[in-house]
Design brief:
There is one protein chain. It is built from 14 helices and eight strands. The chain has 356 residues and is of the alpha/beta class. The strands form two sheets. Strands 1-8-5-4-2-3 form a six-stranded parallel β-sheet, sandwiched between helices. Strands 6-7 form a two-stranded antiparallel ribbon. The radius of gyration is 20 Å and the shape is globular. The chain starts with 11 loop residues before the first strand and ends in a 9-residue tail after the last helix. The structure holds nicotinamide-adenine-dinucleotide.
């Protein structure tokens, strides 16, 4: 008997090319008059362009967002929000900029409009991970979820090929883990499979031809759906490992996801035969974990944690930490196979299904 709970996350989504032209009407629709535009330092020009679009309704630009949402940066931006009596936030950028908007919204409940420029998917989730004194604390609140998301494919055209590949793999990881989540349900599964298929097809094309607009649109569409997956159900071993590795060794977010994903899927394979069958059909392969490993190679991504700078001694540390406060996972966590998984990811070896 079919039985499930589906938690929809309310957000207005505008998707297409040239959609940023709708920014002024979206700002007006929300009744905003003193907006702060957020970006990372390299994307300040994008922020200026958006500010120009909304003219008098822009009260300032803060182009100081950085990776992993440090509380110190949020506090600096919060002071600007107070000083300028800001009534709304616009974020243009990847997960780092969206993270800053979310951190400000959590503290002020200001409405957010996000214009994503990567495939991270943070804009579709009510989740915020902040760092303070080297510790990352993740929390969820309806205040964190952005009200409006404007996906404009044009904004993603400048995302470098290498970053596009790993950002896309990061997105695929959200959808793959949604397929075997504890809260998995047919609606999220439908979106996850559509998303994985879209990105699986688009990423190799983007790797060869970053200016291919159709592939860019397909990837952004897939990334949007992956973001919904991430915001709708809990994540498992893959995300636990990436948070542990990223947090412990300060490794880059999307690159770490790219390396771990095939191995985490292989680890879980024995516990999720139906998911593996569906994935095999969608990816037209008899080994989905291997197909994702090959995809990482195809897009020119690094496939070994040691190439990201992790030391061999880190294998033990990650194994220990992954076994501490583990997330729910379909396959029981056991030290020896987990150690094997991390060792293979460290060395850049192909994924191996447990017991195979
Ligand atoms: P990012 O936002 O850090 O961007 C990486 C770099 O690429 C930055 O320098 C940025 O300015 C630049 N960049 C982004 N888009 C560009 C474009 N189109 N053209 C040229 N340069 C561009 O990277 P990310 O992977 O999008 O985000 C990673 C962060 O997001 C991490 O902190 C991660 O924890 C967080 N995240 C959070 C969630 C969530 O739901 N809370 C989900 C996914 C990621």
């Amino acid at each position: 008997m079919l039985s499930f709970t589906y938690n929809g996350q309310p957000a207005r989504v505008i998707f297409g090319s040239g959609t940023l032209a709708q920014l002024p009407s979206e700002v007006e629709r929300l009744g905003l008059n003193k907006v702060l535009v957020l970006a990372t330092p390299p994307q300040e020009e994008d922020a200026k362009r958006l500010a120009q679009l909304i003219g008098d309704r822009c009260a300032g630009i803060f182009a100081g967002a950085v990776m992993h949402t440090p509380v110190s940066v949020t506090e600096t931006a919060l002071q600007i929000v107070k000083d300028k009596d800001i009534d709304g936030l616009i974020a243009v950028g990847g997960g780092s900029t969206t993270g800053l908007a979310k951190a400000l919204a959590l503290r002020t409940d200001l409405p957010q409009i996000v214009a994503p420029t990567t495939y991270a998917g943070s804009e579709m989730t009510p989740i915020l991970g902040e760092t303070k004194d080297g510790n990352k604390v993740t929390q969820s609140s309806p205040k964190i979820l952005p009200e409006v998301v404007i996906y404009d494919v044009d904004l993603t055209m400048t995302l470098p090929a290498a970053m596009s590949g790993t950002s896309g793999m990061n997105a695929i990881a959200h959808a793959v883990e949604a397929l075997y989540a504890k809260e998995a349900n047919p609606i999220v599964t439908m979106m996850a499979l559509e998303a994985i298929g879209a990105l699986y097809e688009a990423l190799p094309i983007i790797a060869d031809d970053p200016g291919n607009r159709d592939a860019r649109a397909k990837a952004l569409y897939g990334a949007w759906l992956c973001g919904i997956c991430l915001g709708s159900v809990g994540m498992s071993l893959h995300h636990k490992l990436c948070h542990t590795i990223g947090g412990t060794f300060d490794l880059p977010h999307a690159e770490t996801h790219t390396i771990i994903l095939p191995h985490a899927l292989a680890y879980n394979a024995p516990a999720i035969p139906n998911v593996m069958k569906t994935l095999s059909q969608r990816l037209n392969t008899d080994d989905p974990a291997r197909a994702l490993f090959d995809l990482a190679g195809r897009i020119g991504a690094k496939r070994a944690l040691r190439d990201l700078g992790m030391l061999e001694s880190g294998i033990e540390t990650v194994t220990d930490r992954a076994l501490t406060n583990p997330y729910w996972n379909p396959q029981p966590l056991e030290r020896a196979p987990l150690h094997g998984l991390i060792s293979r990811a460290y060395a850049g070896d192909a994924p191996r299904v447990s017991g195979a």
